[in-house]
Design goal:
Elements (H helix, E strand, L loop, with lengths): L1 E2 L1 H4 L6 E7 L3 H12 L4 E5 L23 H14 L3 E4 L1 E7 L4 E7 L5 E12 L3 E3 L7 H5 L6 E2 L2 H4 L8 E5 L8 H4 L6 E4 L8 H10 L2 E3 L3 E7 L2 E7 L4 E3 L2 E5 L2 E3 L11 E2 L2 E2 L12 E3 L10 H23 L5 H18 L1
Parallel strand pairs: 1-4, 2-3, 2-7, 3-4, 7-20, 9-16, 10-11, 10-16, 11-12
Antiparallel strand pairs: 5-6, 6-7, 8-17, 13-14, 14-15, 18-19
Helix pairs in contact: 2-3, 2-8
This protein binds flavin-adenine dinucleotide.
The site of flavin-adenine dinucleotide has 40 residues, from helix 2, strand 3, strand 5 and helix 8.
Length: about 350
Protein backbone atom coordinates (compact mmCIF):
# COMPACT_ATOMS: atom_id res chain seq x y z
CA UNK A 1 0.00 0.00 0.00
CA UNK A 2 1.23 3.47 -0.88
CA UNK A 3 0.79 5.56 2.28
CA UNK A 4 -0.14 9.21 2.05
CA UNK A 5 0.23 12.06 4.50
CA UNK A 6 -3.25 11.16 5.84
CA UNK A 7 -2.96 7.35 5.97
CA UNK A 8 0.55 7.53 7.46
CA UNK A 9 -0.96 8.82 10.71
CA UNK A 10 -3.10 5.68 10.98
CA UNK A 11 0.05 3.55 11.13
CA UNK A 12 1.74 5.19 14.08
CA UNK A 13 0.44 2.54 16.57
CA UNK A 14 1.75 -0.31 14.46
CA UNK A 15 5.20 -1.75 15.16
CA UNK A 16 6.71 -2.82 11.84
CA UNK A 17 9.07 -5.74 11.81
CA UNK A 18 11.40 -3.74 9.58
CA UNK A 19 11.59 -0.14 8.46
CA UNK A 20 13.71 0.36 5.36
CA UNK A 21 15.17 3.82 4.75
CA UNK A 22 15.52 4.21 0.99
CA UNK A 23 13.56 2.76 -1.89
CA UNK A 24 16.32 2.28 -4.45
CA UNK A 25 17.51 -1.08 -5.76
CA UNK A 26 18.75 -2.20 -2.33
CA UNK A 27 15.70 -1.13 -0.32
CA UNK A 28 13.15 -2.50 -2.79
CA UNK A 29 14.97 -5.82 -3.01
CA UNK A 30 14.98 -6.07 0.79
CA UNK A 31 11.28 -5.15 0.85
CA UNK A 32 10.38 -7.90 -1.61
CA UNK A 33 12.25 -10.53 0.42
CA UNK A 34 10.80 -9.26 3.71
CA UNK A 35 7.22 -9.31 2.44
CA UNK A 36 7.72 -12.77 0.99
CA UNK A 37 8.87 -13.83 4.47
CA UNK A 38 5.50 -12.64 5.85
CA UNK A 39 7.12 -9.76 7.74
CA UNK A 40 5.57 -6.29 7.96
CA UNK A 41 7.68 -3.72 6.16
CA UNK A 42 7.61 0.00 5.58
CA UNK A 43 9.90 1.55 2.97
CA UNK A 44 10.39 5.31 3.27
CA UNK A 45 11.95 6.99 0.27
CA UNK A 46 12.69 10.60 -0.52
CA UNK A 47 13.04 9.88 -4.26
CA UNK A 48 15.80 10.61 -6.80
CA UNK A 49 17.55 7.29 -6.21
CA UNK A 50 21.02 7.00 -7.73
CA UNK A 51 19.64 4.24 -9.96
CA UNK A 52 17.24 6.74 -11.51
CA UNK A 53 20.29 8.45 -13.05
CA UNK A 54 21.28 5.25 -14.78
CA UNK A 55 20.28 5.82 -18.39
CA UNK A 56 21.20 2.28 -19.40
CA UNK A 57 21.90 -0.51 -16.94
CA UNK A 58 24.64 -2.21 -18.92
CA UNK A 59 25.60 -5.14 -16.75
CA UNK A 60 22.61 -6.73 -15.02
CA UNK A 61 22.09 -10.38 -15.79
CA UNK A 62 18.86 -11.10 -17.62
CA UNK A 63 17.99 -7.48 -18.49
CA UNK A 64 18.59 -5.93 -21.92
CA UNK A 65 21.69 -3.67 -21.59
CA UNK A 66 19.68 -0.58 -22.51
CA UNK A 67 17.26 -0.99 -19.57
CA UNK A 68 16.94 2.38 -17.79
CA UNK A 69 17.53 2.35 -14.03
CA UNK A 70 14.16 4.04 -13.46
CA UNK A 71 12.45 1.05 -15.12
CA UNK A 72 14.11 -1.29 -12.61
CA UNK A 73 12.86 0.96 -9.79
CA UNK A 74 9.35 1.11 -11.24
CA UNK A 75 9.12 -2.69 -11.61
CA UNK A 76 10.65 -3.19 -8.17
CA UNK A 77 8.18 -0.87 -6.48
CA UNK A 78 5.19 -2.44 -8.26
CA UNK A 79 6.43 -5.89 -7.21
CA UNK A 80 6.91 -4.80 -3.59
CA UNK A 81 3.45 -3.17 -3.40
CA UNK A 82 1.86 -6.29 -4.94
CA UNK A 83 3.16 -8.19 -1.90
CA UNK A 84 1.30 -5.74 0.36
CA UNK A 85 4.44 -3.93 1.42
CA UNK A 86 3.90 -0.37 2.66
CA UNK A 87 5.67 2.56 1.04
CA UNK A 88 5.80 6.23 1.91
CA UNK A 89 7.37 9.17 0.09
CA UNK A 90 9.11 11.00 2.88
CA UNK A 91 12.42 12.00 4.40
CA UNK A 92 13.75 10.19 7.46
CA UNK A 93 15.09 12.88 9.78
CA UNK A 94 16.31 10.83 12.72
CA UNK A 95 16.21 7.47 14.41
CA UNK A 96 16.12 6.82 18.16
CA UNK A 97 16.96 3.45 19.65
CA UNK A 98 14.28 2.70 22.27
CA UNK A 99 15.69 -0.71 23.22
CA UNK A 100 13.15 -3.15 21.70
CA UNK A 101 12.10 -0.75 18.95
CA UNK A 102 13.33 2.17 16.89
CA UNK A 103 11.40 5.44 16.70
CA UNK A 104 11.82 6.81 13.20
CA UNK A 105 10.89 10.44 12.65
CA UNK A 106 9.79 11.23 9.11
CA UNK A 107 9.11 14.51 7.34
CA UNK A 108 6.28 14.21 4.82
CA UNK A 109 5.90 16.82 2.10
CA UNK A 110 8.20 19.66 1.11
CA UNK A 111 5.80 22.55 1.42
CA UNK A 112 3.92 22.66 4.73
CA UNK A 113 5.60 19.45 5.89
CA UNK A 114 4.10 17.23 8.58
CA UNK A 115 6.09 14.95 10.89
CA UNK A 116 5.22 11.38 11.82
CA UNK A 117 7.01 8.88 14.05
CA UNK A 118 6.95 5.20 13.01
CA UNK A 119 8.20 2.27 15.06
CA UNK A 120 9.98 -0.88 13.98
CA UNK A 121 11.97 -3.68 15.50
CA UNK A 122 14.70 -3.66 12.86
CA UNK A 123 16.05 -0.91 10.64
CA UNK A 124 17.66 -1.30 7.24
CA UNK A 125 19.71 1.67 6.05
CA UNK A 126 19.40 1.59 2.25
CA UNK A 127 19.69 5.32 1.67
CA UNK A 128 22.67 5.27 -0.68
CA UNK A 129 24.98 8.05 -1.76
CA UNK A 130 24.95 10.75 -4.40
CA UNK A 131 27.88 11.79 -6.56
CA UNK A 132 29.44 15.25 -6.36
CA UNK A 133 29.50 16.93 -9.78
CA UNK A 134 31.66 19.71 -11.24
CA UNK A 135 30.39 23.01 -9.85
CA UNK A 136 29.83 25.38 -12.75
CA UNK A 137 27.87 28.64 -12.76
CA UNK A 138 25.17 26.97 -14.82
CA UNK A 139 24.52 23.58 -13.18
CA UNK A 140 21.80 22.81 -15.72
CA UNK A 141 24.66 22.50 -18.21
CA UNK A 142 26.19 19.74 -16.05
CA UNK A 143 22.88 17.89 -15.49
CA UNK A 144 22.39 17.87 -19.26
CA UNK A 145 25.18 15.30 -19.68
CA UNK A 146 25.62 13.68 -16.24
CA UNK A 147 24.65 10.02 -16.39
CA UNK A 148 24.66 10.07 -20.21
CA UNK A 149 28.25 10.22 -21.52
CA UNK A 150 29.48 12.21 -18.52
CA UNK A 151 29.88 9.13 -16.35
CA UNK A 152 30.45 8.78 -12.62
CA UNK A 153 31.23 5.07 -12.30
CA UNK A 154 34.23 3.41 -13.89
CA UNK A 155 33.04 -0.16 -13.24
CA UNK A 156 29.67 0.69 -14.83
CA UNK A 157 30.91 2.68 -17.81
CA UNK A 158 34.63 2.06 -18.41
CA UNK A 159 33.57 -0.17 -21.29
CA UNK A 160 31.51 2.68 -22.80
CA UNK A 161 34.66 4.83 -22.88
CA UNK A 162 36.91 2.30 -24.60
CA UNK A 163 39.28 3.94 -27.08
CA UNK A 164 37.46 7.27 -26.70
CA UNK A 165 38.83 10.71 -25.89
CA UNK A 166 37.89 10.86 -22.24
CA UNK A 167 38.09 13.71 -19.73
CA UNK A 168 38.57 13.01 -16.03
CA UNK A 169 37.08 15.67 -13.76
CA UNK A 170 38.41 15.65 -10.21
CA UNK A 171 38.15 17.68 -7.03
CA UNK A 172 41.63 16.89 -5.68
CA UNK A 173 44.85 15.30 -6.85
CA UNK A 174 43.87 11.99 -5.25
CA UNK A 175 40.50 11.97 -7.01
CA UNK A 176 42.34 12.30 -10.35
CA UNK A 177 43.89 8.89 -9.65
CA UNK A 178 40.79 7.58 -11.47
CA UNK A 179 42.64 8.42 -14.71
CA UNK A 180 44.99 5.43 -14.26
CA UNK A 181 42.39 2.63 -14.08
CA UNK A 182 40.51 4.42 -16.89
CA UNK A 183 43.72 3.92 -18.90
CA UNK A 184 42.77 0.23 -19.04
CA UNK A 185 39.94 1.23 -21.39
CA UNK A 186 41.39 4.14 -23.33
CA UNK A 187 44.80 5.79 -23.75
CA UNK A 188 43.29 9.14 -24.81
CA UNK A 189 42.88 10.82 -21.43
CA UNK A 190 42.82 14.48 -20.38
CA UNK A 191 42.51 15.35 -16.70
CA UNK A 192 40.85 18.57 -15.56
CA UNK A 193 41.32 20.44 -12.27
CA UNK A 194 38.77 23.16 -13.14
CA UNK A 195 41.32 25.59 -11.65
CA UNK A 196 40.37 24.43 -8.15
CA UNK A 197 43.53 22.81 -6.81
CA UNK A 198 47.26 22.46 -7.40
CA UNK A 199 48.84 19.31 -8.78
CA UNK A 200 52.20 18.11 -7.44
CA UNK A 201 55.23 17.75 -9.70
CA UNK A 202 55.28 14.02 -8.97
CA UNK A 203 51.68 13.65 -10.19
CA UNK A 204 52.42 15.71 -13.31
CA UNK A 205 55.33 13.41 -14.02
CA UNK A 206 53.12 10.31 -13.72
CA UNK A 207 50.56 11.84 -16.10
CA UNK A 208 53.28 12.60 -18.63
CA UNK A 209 54.67 9.06 -18.32
CA UNK A 210 51.24 7.68 -19.19
CA UNK A 211 50.76 10.18 -22.02
CA UNK A 212 47.79 11.90 -20.33
CA UNK A 213 47.17 15.64 -20.70
CA UNK A 214 46.53 18.01 -17.81
CA UNK A 215 44.22 21.03 -18.13
CA UNK A 216 44.26 23.39 -15.16
CA UNK A 217 42.06 26.21 -16.41
CA UNK A 218 38.54 26.72 -15.02
CA UNK A 219 35.78 25.18 -17.13
CA UNK A 220 33.23 27.59 -18.55
CA UNK A 221 30.77 24.99 -19.81
CA UNK A 222 30.30 21.53 -21.25
CA UNK A 223 29.50 21.40 -24.96
CA UNK A 224 27.30 18.96 -26.85
CA UNK A 225 23.74 18.18 -27.83
CA UNK A 226 21.04 15.60 -27.12
CA UNK A 227 22.68 14.75 -23.78
CA UNK A 228 25.91 13.79 -25.55
CA UNK A 229 28.83 15.84 -24.27
CA UNK A 230 31.37 16.62 -27.02
CA UNK A 231 33.92 18.65 -25.08
CA UNK A 232 34.45 21.55 -22.72
CA UNK A 233 34.87 25.25 -23.25
CA UNK A 234 37.51 26.70 -20.92
CA UNK A 235 37.60 30.12 -19.26
CA UNK A 236 39.79 31.57 -22.05
CA UNK A 237 37.31 30.41 -24.73
CA UNK A 238 39.46 27.53 -25.97
CA UNK A 239 37.79 24.18 -26.54
CA UNK A 240 38.88 20.67 -25.52
CA UNK A 241 37.14 18.07 -27.64
CA UNK A 242 36.05 14.91 -25.86
CA UNK A 243 33.86 11.87 -26.55
CA UNK A 244 33.13 11.03 -22.93
CA UNK A 245 33.91 12.07 -19.36
CA UNK A 246 34.41 10.53 -15.96
CA UNK A 247 33.54 12.60 -12.90
CA UNK A 248 35.58 11.52 -9.90
CA UNK A 249 34.70 13.92 -7.10
CA UNK A 250 33.53 11.70 -4.28
CA UNK A 251 30.01 11.44 -2.91
CA UNK A 252 27.59 12.59 -0.28
CA UNK A 253 26.58 9.74 2.05
CA UNK A 254 22.93 9.70 3.09
CA UNK A 255 23.33 8.73 6.74
CA UNK A 256 22.51 11.92 8.67
CA UNK A 257 19.44 10.32 10.25
CA UNK A 258 21.71 7.82 12.04
CA UNK A 259 23.68 10.55 13.84
CA UNK A 260 22.26 9.65 17.29
CA UNK A 261 23.39 6.04 17.00
CA UNK A 262 26.97 4.98 17.51
CA UNK A 263 27.89 3.02 14.36
CA UNK A 264 31.19 2.12 12.73
CA UNK A 265 32.09 3.82 9.46
CA UNK A 266 34.87 3.63 6.91
CA UNK A 267 34.96 7.06 5.32
CA UNK A 268 31.24 7.74 4.87
CA UNK A 269 30.33 4.07 4.35
CA UNK A 270 28.81 1.93 7.08
CA UNK A 271 30.85 -1.12 8.03
CA UNK A 272 28.84 -4.35 7.99
CA UNK A 273 29.44 -8.06 8.53
CA UNK A 274 28.73 -10.83 6.03
CA UNK A 275 24.95 -10.62 6.62
CA UNK A 276 25.06 -6.82 6.19
CA UNK A 277 24.61 -6.08 9.88
CA UNK A 278 26.21 -2.88 11.17
CA UNK A 279 27.86 -2.62 14.58
CA UNK A 280 24.29 -2.31 16.00
CA UNK A 281 22.58 -5.72 16.27
CA UNK A 282 19.25 -4.54 14.80
CA UNK A 283 20.51 -2.13 12.13
CA UNK A 284 21.53 -3.47 8.74
CA UNK A 285 23.07 -1.46 5.90
CA UNK A 286 22.80 -2.38 2.23
CA UNK A 287 23.66 -1.01 -1.21
CA UNK A 288 25.93 1.97 -1.86
CA UNK A 289 25.82 3.20 1.75
CA UNK A 290 27.78 0.23 3.06
CA UNK A 291 31.41 -0.61 2.36
CA UNK A 292 31.56 -2.54 -0.90
CA UNK A 293 31.02 -2.29 -4.62
CA UNK A 294 28.48 0.27 -5.87
CA UNK A 295 26.47 -1.78 -8.33
CA UNK A 296 22.77 -2.54 -8.78
CA UNK A 297 23.39 -6.28 -8.69
CA UNK A 298 25.21 -5.94 -5.34
CA UNK A 299 22.47 -3.67 -3.93
CA UNK A 300 19.82 -6.24 -4.87
CA UNK A 301 21.83 -9.10 -3.38
CA UNK A 302 22.51 -7.08 -0.20
CA UNK A 303 18.77 -6.62 0.25
CA UNK A 304 18.16 -10.35 -0.06
CA UNK A 305 20.90 -11.20 2.45
CA UNK A 306 19.82 -8.68 5.11
CA UNK A 307 16.11 -9.50 4.78
CA UNK A 308 16.71 -13.23 5.05
CA UNK A 309 18.87 -12.80 8.13
CA UNK A 310 16.21 -10.67 9.83
CA UNK A 311 13.55 -13.28 9.02
CA UNK A 312 15.79 -16.00 10.52
CA UNK A 313 16.17 -14.06 13.74
CA UNK A 314 12.47 -13.25 14.09
CA UNK A 315 11.50 -16.85 13.19
CA UNK A 316 13.89 -18.29 15.76
CA UNK A 317 12.43 -16.02 18.43
CA UNK A 318 8.76 -16.42 17.55
CA UNK A 319 8.50 -19.92 16.05
CA UNK A 320 5.38 -19.21 14.01
CA UNK A 321 3.69 -16.13 12.62
CA UNK A 322 0.45 -17.79 11.66
CA UNK A 323 -2.59 -17.62 13.94
CA UNK A 324 -3.59 -20.83 15.79
CA UNK A 325 -6.83 -20.89 13.71
CA UNK A 326 -4.90 -20.75 10.43
CA UNK A 327 -2.55 -23.48 11.64
CA UNK A 328 -5.49 -25.76 12.64
CA UNK A 329 -7.20 -25.16 9.30
CA UNK A 330 -4.00 -26.09 7.46
CA UNK A 331 -3.63 -29.26 9.58
CA UNK A 332 -7.24 -30.26 8.84
CA UNK A 333 -6.71 -29.76 5.08
CA UNK A 334 -3.54 -31.85 5.26
CA UNK A 335 -5.30 -34.66 7.17
CA UNK A 336 -8.23 -34.65 4.71
CA UNK A 337 -5.81 -34.97 1.79
CA UNK A 338 -4.03 -37.90 3.48
CA UNK A 339 -7.38 -39.65 4.20
CA UNK A 340 -8.51 -39.23 0.57
CA UNK A 341 -5.34 -40.97 -0.63
CA UNK A 342 -5.97 -43.91 1.78
C1 LIG B 1 25.10 7.64 -13.70
C2 LIG B 1 25.19 6.30 -13.03
C3 LIG B 1 25.31 5.16 -13.80
C4 LIG B 1 25.38 3.92 -13.18
N1 LIG B 1 25.43 2.81 -13.97
C5 LIG B 1 25.37 1.60 -13.39
C6 LIG B 1 25.39 0.42 -14.19
O1 LIG B 1 25.41 0.47 -15.43
N2 LIG B 1 25.34 -0.76 -13.54
C7 LIG B 1 25.27 -0.86 -12.16
O2 LIG B 1 25.21 -1.97 -11.63
N3 LIG B 1 25.27 0.24 -11.40
C8 LIG B 1 25.32 1.46 -11.97
N4 LIG B 1 25.34 2.58 -11.18
C9 LIG B 1 25.38 2.42 -9.70
C10 LIG B 1 23.99 2.12 -9.15
O3 LIG B 1 23.10 3.14 -9.57
C11 LIG B 1 24.02 2.06 -7.63
O4 LIG B 1 25.00 1.13 -7.19
C12 LIG B 1 22.66 1.65 -7.06
O5 LIG B 1 21.67 2.52 -7.54
C13 LIG B 1 22.67 1.65 -5.55
O6 LIG B 1 21.37 1.39 -5.08
P1 LIG B 1 20.97 1.82 -3.59
O7 LIG B 1 19.60 1.27 -3.40
O8 LIG B 1 22.04 1.48 -2.64
O9 LIG B 1 20.92 3.42 -3.61
P2 LIG B 1 19.92 4.41 -4.36
O10 LIG B 1 19.48 3.83 -5.65
O11 LIG B 1 20.58 5.73 -4.40
O12 LIG B 1 18.66 4.48 -3.39
C14 LIG B 1 18.72 5.12 -2.14
C15 LIG B 1 17.39 5.83 -1.89
O13 LIG B 1 17.34 6.30 -0.54
C16 LIG B 1 16.78 7.58 -0.53
N5 LIG B 1 17.15 8.30 0.69
C17 LIG B 1 18.35 8.83 1.03
N6 LIG B 1 18.28 9.41 2.24
C18 LIG B 1 17.01 9.25 2.67
C19 LIG B 1 16.32 9.65 3.84
N7 LIG B 1 16.94 10.31 4.83
N8 LIG B 1 15.00 9.36 3.95
C20 LIG B 1 14.37 8.68 2.97
N9 LIG B 1 14.98 8.27 1.83
C21 LIG B 1 16.29 8.55 1.69
C22 LIG B 1 17.37 8.23 -1.79
O14 LIG B 1 16.66 9.36 -2.17
C23 LIG B 1 17.22 7.06 -2.77
O15 LIG B 1 15.94 7.07 -3.37
C24 LIG B 1 25.31 3.82 -11.76
C25 LIG B 1 25.21 4.99 -10.99
C26 LIG B 1 25.13 6.21 -11.61
C27 LIG B 1 24.99 7.45 -10.76
Amino acid sequence: MQLTRQTANQRTDHVYDVLVVGGGAAGLSAGIYLQRSLLSTLIIDKGKARSSWVQELHNYLGLPPDTPGREVLKQGKTHYLSLEGEHLNGYVEDVTDEGETFAVRVRIGRTNPTYTVFRSRYLIAASGIIDHLPQLNNMQNVFEYAGHNLHVCLICDGYEMRDKRAGVFGSSESSLEAAFPLGWFTPYITVFTNGEFEVSSEFRHRLTQHGYRLVEQPIKQFLGENHQMSGVELADGSIEELDAGLVSMGSKYHADYLKNIDLEYEGGNLITDKVNRTSHPRIFAIGDLKVGMNQVVIAAADGAIAATQIWREIRRREGSRRSPIAINQAKERFNEAVLMKV
